[in-house]
TrEMBL record:
Keywords, in A-Z order: Amino-acid biosynthesis, Branched-chain amino acid biosynthesis, Chloroplast, Isoleucine biosynthesis, Lyase, Plastid, Pyridoxal phosphate, Repeat, Transit peptide
Name of the protein: Threonine dehydratase
Reactions that this protein is recorded to catalyse: L-threonine = 2-oxobutanoate + NH4(+)
Species name: Aegilops tauschii subsp. strangulata (Goatgrass)
Cofactors: pyridoxal 5'-phosphate
Cellular component terms per the entry's GO annotation: chloroplast
Domain ACT-like: 283-355, 377-448
Protein family according to the UniProt entry: Belongs to the serine/threonine dehydratase family.
One Pfam match: Thr_dehydrat_C
């Protein structure tokens, strides 16, 4: 099933009595746990119902169905799917198989730790483990700390899905309001009770990593082994690398768990785009050039020997300054800094966009789009991936207010990340917010992002 999740599910289900197996099992999951439960049920000869949110991409529920389970699509979110699964569990006497928070699930995932210890008998500095709900790390820590207490167990989370790091910091389980969906295998709002208890007692720390760093690790793994990991599967590798670099670790043995390879193929486009940024091999920049003859040549001279990997320019009849968006292949931070300084000292305002997700996901595609739009508000909305999501959005907000900007590029994520500009007069802002809240899509303002003002607002006001 291309992930470790089979271990926990099978361990729990193999311990059920024949009578329990005859009554069947049920679980709710939009991902790898579903496949683990489905395959275990087939091996153990029991009936499995898997409840998935209606937004689950077809490719995911089809692969579960192919393993012989009955898929029920119910609810808009994981929480709704879970409530329905628990209800059916009571009504039908099925056993609920949770994704992480159960001693048998934790023990099953812990077999990963047992295998590492058996296969690596020499000195071992640390094991890096991806963390979602915490089942895998709790199981590995419980086993390894018993037999090799000197080995550090370090969790790795995406910096925008850091439920375990925050919970450990506050000494209690924290519920995240927003969870980044890029590494969907570990995108949980709250970690388990038992997994948290074990992590508090046993693990040595958590490393947080960016989306770019995860992409860079996916590329490294591909280049080394020709394997393609899913984002959650490459998380630990990214964390191990950041940790070793930070502590200047050399000559030590560390293990990073590559936990899954259920990569949505469409997402590879984004991964390849971000991988070089994550490795600092490519930087994304914007430079403002006076709209006059010879500017372009001067710009090219200042770029010097840096290798331009992407370049976008469009004449702007309203502007005194042209905006050039480009990427350069970089060799060292020093060379990049020197180039930006060359631009600045020739009075060519230059902005490094490399760490700005709004620029990388949306604004770099908007060349030539700068204008002064009255009462414009700009938000990022996360549209659920289901037919009708756009119509629902438009029905709620338009034609009441004019849409002044819209950018969406499919990136194979669970929710579509859409940038929307909308003209809302000040007296309508409260009504707009209440309608946007009722829509039920996650959204966040980008009005304070200076890059939006720089790249999209009128050049005359720059
Ligand atoms: C590929 C992958 N890695 C890591 C995890 C995290 O596991 P846990 O929820 O036990 O922390 C998951 C969970 O589904 C996963 O699918």
């Amino acid at each position: 099933v291309f992930s470790f999740k089979l271990r926990g599910a099978y361990n729990m289900m193999a311990k059920l009595s024949r009578e329990q197996l005859n009554n069947g099992v049920i679980c709710s999951s939009a991902g790898n746990h579903a496949q683990g439960v489905a395959l275990s049920a087939r091996k153990l000869g029991c009936d499995a119902v898997i409840v998935m949110p209606v937004t689950t991409p077809e490719i995911k529920w089809r692969s579960v169905e192919r393993l012989g389970a009955t898929v029920v699509l119910k609810g808009d979110s994981y929480d709704e799917a879970q409530s329905y699964a628990k209800l059916r569990c009571e009504q039908e006497g099925r056993t609920f198989i949770p994704p992480f928070d159960h001693p048998d699930i934790i023990a099953g995932q812990g077999t990963v730790g047992m295998e590492i210890v058996r296969q690596l008998q020499g000195p071992l500095h640390a094991i890096f483990v991806p963390v979602g709900g915490g089942g895998l790390i709790a199981g590995i820590a419980a086993y390894v700390k018993r037999v090799r207490p000197e080995v550090k167990i370090i969790g790795v989370e995406p910096s925008d899905a850091n439920a375990m790091a925050l919970s450990l910091c506050h000494g209690q389980r924290v519920v995240l309001e927003h969870v980044g969906g890029f590494a969907d295998g570990v995108a949980v709002k709250v970690v388990g009770e038992e997994t948290f208890r074990l992590c508090q007692e046993l693990i040595d720390g958590i490393v947080l990593v960016s989306r770019d760093a995860i992409c860079a690790s996916i590329k490294d793994m591909f280049e080394e082994n020709r394997n393609i990991l899913e984002p959650a599967g490459a998380l630990a590798l990214a964390g191990a690398e950041a940790y070793c670099k930070y502590y200047g670790l050399k000559g030590e043995t560390v293990v990073a768990i590559s936990s899954g390879a259920n990569m949505n193929f469409d997402r590879l486009r984004l991964v390849t785009e971000l991988a070089d940024v994550g490795r600092k091999r490519e930087a994304v920049l914007a430079t403002f050039l006076p709209e006059e003859q010879g500017s372009f040549k001067k710009f090219a001279e200042l770029v010097g020997r840096m290798n331009i990997t992407e370049f976008k320019y469009r004449y702007d009849s309203n502007g005194k300054e042209a905006l050039v968006l480009y990427s350069v292949g970089i060799y060292t931070d020093h060379e990049l800094k020197a180039m930006v300084e060359r631009m600045e000292s020739s009075e060519l305002k230059t902005v490094n966009l490399t760490d700005n997700d709004l620029a990388k996901d949306h604004l770099r595609y908007f060349i030539g789009g700068r204008s002064e739009v009255k009462d414009e508000l700009v938000y990022r909305f996360i549209f659920p991936e289901r037919p009708g999501a756009l119509m629902n959005f438009l029905d709620t907000l338009s034609p009441r207010w004019n849409i002044s900007l819209f950018h969406y590029r499919a990136q194979g994520e669970t929710g579509a990340n859409v940038l929307v500009g909308i003209q809302v007069p000040p007296e309508d802002v409260d009504e707009f917010r209440s309608r946007a809240d009722n829509l039920g899509y996650e959204y966040m303002s980008e009005m304070n992002n200076e890059i939006y003002h720089l790249l999209l607002r009128s050049p005359n006001k720059v």
